Amino acid sequence: MSRSVNPSGRPSVVIVGAGPRGTGLIERIAANAPELYGDAPLDLHLVDPHPPGGGRIWRAGQSPLLWMNSTAEDVTMFTDETVELDGPVRPGPSLAEWARGVRSGEIPAGPGPADGAAALGPRDFAGRRLQSAYLSWVYEQSVAALPPRVAVHEHRRTAVRVSGSREGRQQVWLAGRPAPLLADLVVLALGHLEAELPPEQRKLADFAARHGLTHLPPAFTADTDLSALRPGEPVLVRGFGLAFVDLMVLLTEGRGGSYTTGADGQLTYRPSGREPVLHVGSRRGVPYHAKIGYELHGERPPLPRFFGPEQVDALLARPGADLDFRRDIWPLIDKELGFAHYHRLFTAHPGRTRMNWPDFEEKYAAADPGGAALQALVGAAVPDPADRLDLAALDHPLAGLRYPDGASLQEGLRGYIEADLARRHDPAHSPDLAVFLALLSVYGQLVRIGDRGPWWHGFFSYLASGPPGPRLRQLLALSRAGVVRFLGAGMTVTADERRGVFRAGSASVPGESTEARALVEARLPEPTVAHTRDALLRALYADGAATTRTGLLAVSAADGRVLDRSGRPHPRRFALGPHTDARSGGAFARPRTNAPAFRQNDATARALLTFLRDRAAPPVTTLPVRRAPVTEESHAADQ
């Protein structure tokens, strides 16, 4: 007979996932416990095979060549006065401020973090291993901030199942351990997950197996075995976002290549001879836009304006309404992004406009999104088409463009990337930064609506979450060296049974195709619960948990409780993160942006503490316990 782990009968919460989302939740539990829970005893069980803080994605054990795609000053794990929450604000250092504290000795850290922090400036892009050190420090600080009678128990294992009735305590089963953890409440903070192959990918994998080819399906690039991609051989790569950038780095610098900088500042790539040749394309056919390389000075757009709490309330209040993103939500987003763009153009660059801002704003507010009146207004007030916001053109930059051959496409794409780099580092185009801020605002509002479908998340990432500028300069150097070749937009991949190869083409160069014996799907798997490889989520789905039309786990917008298929929130099960329909764009955030993840963490922490205070069994009398984490191996009750 198995013996459940909770010998003292103390109230307990099991948090599955020790990455930044689980860490952020512990920080909020520590912040809210004095008000809602007092000094009562509590066990927090943290379950993850990877060390807490960074978890799997931000673990220290990955290539030092891999970077973050946000500058150090734009990364924080702490709340500030902009965050709309019921709990207390507990400020803390951004990644840049933490690195400065490590350098000065004000923040103690080991030699690894200290070495990485030594050269990190506020506008630099940190390596992921340094971010891992920051997240580990945040975790340690959050645990230390818990009340004295709250103990944290770390379990370096994988949770495989949750059982238990709605009314009773839950059992959390861990791989390799017969005794479950007993929990009053369970929180799933699982992060990015692996998935079963969808039908198209299964067919390609089967084809590869029959013909002795290499097929690497969607996955986190740092976890992928790239050894099958052989030097000098062509590799088809489908996907042009951040997963591709990691792939590009690991197969070039990661195999011994290097860059030199000429007198004109242009990078030149020096191959090692171990690189494959990457033929990359995607739906858009271009890389994500570079991160903006300047700061916003002057007046910020007053956001939200056309897509804020009032508009979301109205959408959610429609009786029996089945909201359609394109019909009901996108027009409001379109107008919000346009408002931010033109507010910045008129207030910061008035010489490029033909109307005063108050008159334009009044007419803009009255015009229908995308309608003829709005187009006429913008045409009259903004003479240069380059100063007008065209979201459709941004989303499809190569639409209608045809190149006579592959060589022309290479030149055309290099010109496009060079222009993007120039624009994203030129404050004369600061309306782009205003649109970025509007995108963050919009994402914060959309969390309340739930599943928006995959297009919005991709569009947001393409405009707002692209690679650092230096990575695109490296891409240009690799293109000039012939190590990377562009395939164009509307990329297609077919299995050529006759020749036994993969074949790729695109709409950008009609009639041309490229064949290869290797195909890499450079993107993360879709976070669908029904097809995830995570045993716990699949069991939860089989047990009646609801999912959205695109397969995300349905949760209550108020506090993250898991919903069943009748829409009832489970009183004891919660979920946070990208596998839910409240996905919030990131577990850490840019400071002073009212980050959705911080708001969600606070609401969930307060719901946990309130439940335990009001409904859990009275705590047994016990001596205070230490606040330092207790590992599974040293916790006698968990042997």
UniProtKB/TrEMBL annotation:
Annotated region Disordered: where?
564-584, 620-639
- SUPFAM superfamilies assigned: FAD/NAD(P)-binding domain (SSF51905)
Which top-level group of life is the source organism from?
A: Bacteria
Pfam families reported in the protein's UniProt record = NAD_binding_9
* Native source species: Streptomyces nigrescens
- By what name is this protein known? Adenylate cyclase
Question: Where does this protein have compositionally biased stretches of type Basic and acidic residues?
Answer: 629-639
The residues covered by the FAD-dependent urate hydroxylase HpyO/Asp monooxygenase CreE-like FAD/NAD(P)-binding domain are: 14-192
